[in-house]
Amino acid sequence: MRQRALDYLGKREYSYVELAQKLKPFVEESEIDSADAQIKAILDDFVKRGWLSDARFTEQVVHARKSKFGSAKVANELREKGVADDLIMDAIEKLKETELENALAIWRKKFKASPHSREEWAKQARFLQSRGFSFDLIKRVLNSKFEHDN
After folding, report:
1. Shortest CA distance to 70 belongs to which of 87, 53, 91?
2. Residue 112 binned pLDDT confidence (cut-offs 50, 70, 90)
């Protein structure tokens, strides 16, 4: 099981909880009672050695997702992966510093023109909302474009 965990970590970063869940199906039937303790011991050793880090995992996820998604969607993904709330809050705080620029870049990539009607404005707003951007940020992106072009 230890080698399997190392193989997973050799391919990409994992959160503690995510890696534990990935290892559970590979516990042998005779070891089911002690499986959680065995997995915890392996992962605690990896943390102590610096091979497994929720902070590093969080940085990697934020870096990979910031060009496609807003802070709400990134935070939700981190919560699903079992990352601690304090790490999520720190990461989202840093992400919000560049969120407006990221939203504008995503908007420009998808839509070549500013909204020319309320229906088009709503369509573009729904797109940005599905990407995890807050409504205040969406209004800033779309209203500035809508007002300057009309």
Report:
1. 91
2. confident
